[in-house]
Amino acid sequence: MGLLTILKKMKQKEKEVRILMLGLDNAGKTTILKKFNGEDIDTISPTLGFNIKTLEHRGFKLNIWDVGGQKSLRSYWRNYFESTDALIWVVDSADRMRLGDCKKELHTLLVEERLAGATLLVFANKQDLPGSLSAPEIREALDLNSIKTHHWLIQDCSAVTGENLLNGMDWVVNDIASRIFTMD
Amino acid sequence: MADWKGTIDVPNGTPDDLKSGVAERLQKREDERQTLLRKRREEQDDLDEKVQDSLHSFLEILKSERLSLEKSLAESSSLERSKLIDHFDALSLRVQKLQRNVSESALFLPPYELKTAQNVIVLLQSKIQETRDQLLPKKKFAFTKKQNKKPALEGKQSKDIDLNSAKNVLSKSDDDLVVEFTACKFVDRTGETLQKNANEINQKDIALVNLANCTVLLYGAPSAVHINKLNKCTIFCGPVPGSIFIRDCVECTFVLACQQLRIHSTTNTEFYIHVTSKAIIEDCNKVKFAPYNWKYDTIEEDYNSTGLSKQRNNWDKVDDFNWLVADVHSPNWSVIPSIDRVTSWKL
Known about the structure:
The complex is a heterodimer. Chain A is of the alpha/beta class. In chain A, 32% of the residues lie in helices and 23% in strands. Chain B is of the alpha/beta class. In chain B, helix 2 (15-75) packs antiparallel against helix 3 and helix 2 (15-75) packs parallel to helix 4 (111-135). Chain B starts with a helix and ends in a 12-residue tail after the last strand.
């Protein structure tokens, strides 16, 4: 029995995955987390620090870490990289002015050794706003096609309406499962 | 058998005696343990108090020492040249002493205070060095070295500048993106009064970019607002159920109602706000807050359609991301005293 097999078996027993949710401030990370968990989203303040939610989804235990995206907090992101199974990158699709920043921060993360092998989901959030860019436009702006190191998917969504959040999460869970767990 | 019986202390008595003896001893040990615990707890309380005290006095000392050092440093230029070496040596020595004080206090300092203190020391050291280099240039034998150093430094600076200009170009092109795509916007205007009505902005996202000396009136309820690079502008907006994002504004006045408000790199600006969560500032300076007080004909309808709670207004609960000290108010923002507030807007 190889080490990998042992690790797989351990993970399989727990069926626990660790998901790290990052993105620029005002992207809607906390709103996605709360909406997904069925909580009230009208009272969310900008995140000073981080939120953790553990939720059951399709028999998996998802530990979702939502870390604040303010400029002054970004240097702390790396403290959360360890043993991350999936990275969810949240984008404010209506914030055209900071797409350059957004692209830069994302590509900085992707060269990070401790995130190597993590599944990458990009949420093109705020699709409820008429001025928002579509998922293909965001894909272009963030140069996602150049990513060869991670399994990735871009999913348009709206945290306010809840649209497509589940689709995105399902893909994340499937992708992790096919990597780590033997599918049931 | 009798031989060793005398030498070892074997308790003799009935089993009952033995039992009560054990119980007694156990009780005694229990009492001792409790006393010890209590003593330790008291000591701990004492210690906590001491830590609080020493933290306080540490911060006081750090502050006064920093101020006095800065003062004497500022006076350096008025001193005679012959006294300068001693003067700077004395200053360096004081900073070293301060450094030692910080290291010794590291045990009880919270991480944030420790980091701040270390920054203060680094800053002081570099300031002293700078002034020293300025007033007492190095002797001739060191000159060649300095000459070597200088071009390198300049090279680095010019590189920085290049980087900056590259960045500017980048952000410029990002701005262009806005000009191209966002339907609902005001961009690159000077000295105008700009207005949009409910049918144009309701449930839309709005961008205000590069305005100077403008007054912007948004009579309605947009879903989100992005504001960038305003100078001496006055902005009015109806209730926003989502977030308003502001950066790089100078000497403006904002009158806004929204669920989330994020303010970045903004100075000398007044905010009359209604925020149902908490406003945050980052890299801001001299920003002031007062409660929202704009009124227009259809504002009630807009409140109703957005569902923004009229009762909950946290206008004076502002989080400063550059100021994580809990018990001291951030120096970057303040509340506008009631007498200084604008009570009716002349439009």
